[in-house]
Description:
By secondary structure, the chain is of the alpha/beta class. The protein has one domain (13-168): Nucleotidyltransferase, domain 5 (2-Layer Sandwich), CATH 3.30.420. It has seven helices and five strands; from the N terminus they run H-E-E-H-E-H-H-E-E-H-H-H. The chain has helices at residues 13-20, 65-78, 89-95, 97-110, 144-167, 173-176, 182-191; strands spanning 26-32, 41-47, 81-87, 118-122, 132-136. It has a five-stranded mixed sheet with strand order 3-2-1-4-5. A hairpin with an 8-residue loop joins strand 1 and strand 2. Helix 2 packs across helix 5 and helix 3 crosses helix 4 (97-110). The longest helix has 24 residues, at 144-167. The radius of gyration is 18 Å and the shape is elongated. The relative contact order is 0.21.
Amino acid sequence: xxxxxxxxxxxxxxxxxxxxxxxxxxxxxxxxxxxxxxxxxxxxxxxxxxxxxxxxxxxxxxxxxxxxxxxxxxxxxxxxxxxxxxxxxxxxxxxxxxxxxxxxxxxxxxxxxxxxxxxxxxxxxxxxxxxxxxxxxxxxxxxxxxxxxxxxxxxxxxxxxxxxxxxxxxxxxxxxxxxxxxxxxxxxxxxxxxxxxxxxxxxxxxxxxxx
Length: 211
């Protein structure tokens, strides 16, 4: 793992420093959906061109749904490559949310049309891969590549949850996107969990049948 100076001059600082050290395809990686009671965790990997500019791009959590929807196609148009990785709710139950997140990130990297030689990963946990990488706390507000990945992951996951809402309208997935709102918890208590609920999560496991 390479080291960078602490001074950050722009939101492309880490990408620029990686290129200056010889890396050519720098991918930002982020996820959406670690905390919800239902639905998958979705990871995205994005390789941006060297001189990238997209006004308004920021951490997806800081953006409105309307703004994320506007940015989503623009990121796809301008990015060198975009990869998406999904870990289903049953995988979360089987291997825990952290491992499911890392598996989703690996899947996103594998689906990039241009193989990356360096990764910028949001958070503090490295992705289990031989590719050189750097983790960044609050990386979605410090790196444009990670910010782009956060928008892609969030929009894709929201669309999945809207699709689940059509299959299971009683839970209101289109509104809360699987997070543990009171309305969602009340629906789980009334109807029990459906196939896309995370049965190992508090708020759901209490309503599962069996031991």
